Amino acid sequence: STGVFAIPNEHDLSTVSNPSTILQSVYTKPFGEQAKLEAGFKEILRHTTNDFTAAYLDSVTSLFALAPSRTTDFDYREQIGAAYAVFSRQFGKLQTQAGVRLEEAGATLLLPDAPADQQRVDNGYASVFPSGILSYNFTPMRQLKLSYSRRISRPNPFQLDPVVVKQDARNYFVGNPGLRPEYTDALELGYLETRAWGTIQVNPYLRSTSHAVRYIQTVDSTGITTSTFDNVASTIQYGTDLNVTYRHGPLTLFTGGSAYHYSSNATNLPGNLSTRAFVWSTRANSSWKLTPTMDVQAFGNYRSAFATEYGSQRAFSYMN
Asked: What is the largest CA-CA distance in the chain?
């Protein structure tokens, strides 16, 4: 009735292991001076375990007693096999590159302490990743590049681990064992110009992501905030990056900014967390050489406020 939370004394023990093995082979075959073929394969084996126990202080015995409801054995194993081929060729001022990567991945999550029907989660998937680049050098100091690529971002063990982390009486974090990898198709245009005083670089882009992994927060009826990760159906982001480098005497200045529009379809999640946002940022880093052995530097960064799937992010600024 007083609104005061009593936080019990708790001892947590987490024993984590994450060995990994990587086997890789690369083959390169030139065709004259204008063309080249590169191929190879890569095998990745990863194994992550987390044995977690929590114990609470018994006020009667003054001893810590284990809490079976918060004991978890987390065992996650990944096998990722991939083969790729990339062919590149130059036609005068035009450089071309085309490639493809074939991948098959298997992942098994074992939770011995979960209910019988939830102790094993298998997630296997096969993927194809095409890519292509066209680059044209108008002059040795001016270049235009168009590229397409498909990428994957796999959930890491921290995001999957279902062990409840109680940061305090009102804030919990729990991983999502059912998290799926996200796929992003990216179309990017790049323009680079070099001058005597520095460089100018402009990069417009369009990125479409399916099963995008997002950080989600919910608040229950008792006021406890639970944070986790989940997949939203899809996202689309388009925008532009601008970077300028300027050098004159003792001054070196790196400055730039970005602006993009973001929208997500999260109708697959409870409460429909879909959102739209316009985000912009600017940054600058300057250096002045006072003497051959001393210089002074300043850095500043600002990012606007924007909406997210679980609420909003306030504006951010940083200076150093």
From this structure: 84
